[in-house]
Amino acid sequence: MNVVVGGGLAGCSIAYALAEAGADVLLIEQRGGVGQAASGNPQGILMPYLSDRDSGASSVYGKGFEISCQILDELADQHGFALSRGVAQLPTNRRLTRVAVECTEMGLWLGAQDLSEHTGIALSEGGFWFPNGRCVQVASLCDALANHHRIRRECDLRVNKIERLDGSWRLETTDTPITAMNVFVAASYECAQLDQLNWLPQSRVRGQIAYVRATPKTKALKAAICADGYVTPAHCGFHVAGATFDRDIEDEELRPERNRELLRQIGTWAAPFGAPSIDCDQGRVAFRHTTPDRLPIVGMVPRMETWLAGGERAVARFNRDQVDYWPNLYVSAGHGSRGLTTCFAAARHLVGLVQGLLQVDRTLEPLRFARQAMIRSLKQHEATTS
Asked: I need a labelling partner for 169 at 20 to 30 A (CA). Which of 58, 98, 251, 339 fits?
């Protein structure tokens, strides 16, 4: 049996990819339903990543954008999660302006008048227009993905431990144990609570979005606009504006003053949203799982226990080609704020690994953080023994 741990967008994407490949899947989510936590925002934006150099990040996000568009187009006719088409990106620095002028593969550089016509509200400057970008109800998308006839959901169920036993995986849960042939962990920063993954980067960043009550002027917005912040077209009487990156705040309490800061910022380039009387006291808080290199963690899980306990000698002789992997254990995490761009490609890659059709992607695999984990473990050991 295939078990996916985590019912957010990463986990639902994996479950859907496996099901489409003909496999039966058990999807486990510790909350009351799929598409909650960071995947529970009422609107998410899918758009390309702009880069002025041919980097690993630009390749990952470019490929991810294409795959996401393809899958969302396939699903959109069956489910009502798609809200609006097209996304505008206003340049926030010279680098983005240079990239936008030179890049024509995924979008168009438009002047202020043309871009204003696409978005529905007056803009004082031009920017990039991505016709295949879109706004999506992420929670509804997760539900649509998990609604496959080969997927069985188990919500309100927490996986506390996984262990290798008699050639299979045994999952200790808050209910009865579960046995699986393949396990896919897609539980965001909570992946690190499992022994096999506790060495991975555990950084999480608080994000707050504002629910902005639509006014006669803001209702004219018909496409999402991104700059130093973003705002989406109204749905059910509210726009979504976001999002904060609060690295030093750990509580989940909504802070109205952060909403007002968001709206003041957005109002500098989308004037209707800068009105003093606008209602933005409601919102939502969630935590993103981020990584040091801002790329997701996708691939087979390496066996790190011996290396982590090896001290300075292990650090000195570490060679990623000599590391063994746990059999049939995979991870998809660290998607940050770009899950709509990366989760589908990550899921497709993992299914390819299971089927033996693809090789490990060294840009994304967990092993890229192994040396840092070994050094961190060594320092912790020295601190406790000194």
From this structure: 339
* Half-sphere exposure (Cβ direction) of 383: Cα atoms closer than 13 Å: 6
3-state percent helix, strand, coil for the chain, nearest multiple of 5: 35, 25, 35
Domain of 315, CATH number, reads 3.50.50.60
- Nearest-angstrom CA–CA distance, 364 and 240: 31
Tally of domains in the chain: 2
Residues in contact with 225: Cβ distance below 8 Å, sequence separation at least 6, in sequence order: 87, 88, 90, 119, 123, 231, 269, 270
* Digit-coded pLDDT (tens) for 103-147: 557 889 999 999 999 999 999 899 999 999 999 999 999 999 999
DSSP string for 212-275 = EE--TTGGG--SEEEESEEE---BTTEEEEE---BTT-------HHHHHHHHHHHHTTSGGGG-
Hey, how many other C-beta atoms are within 10 angstroms of the C-beta on 357?
A: 9
What pLDDT score was predicted for residue 197? 97
The domain boundary, picked from 248, 266, 288, lies at 288
In terms of residue numbers, what domain contains 342? 2-36+141-203+291-385
Tens digits of per-residue pLDDT, 219-276? 999 999 999 999 999 999 999 999 999 999 999 999 999 999 999 999 999 999 998 8
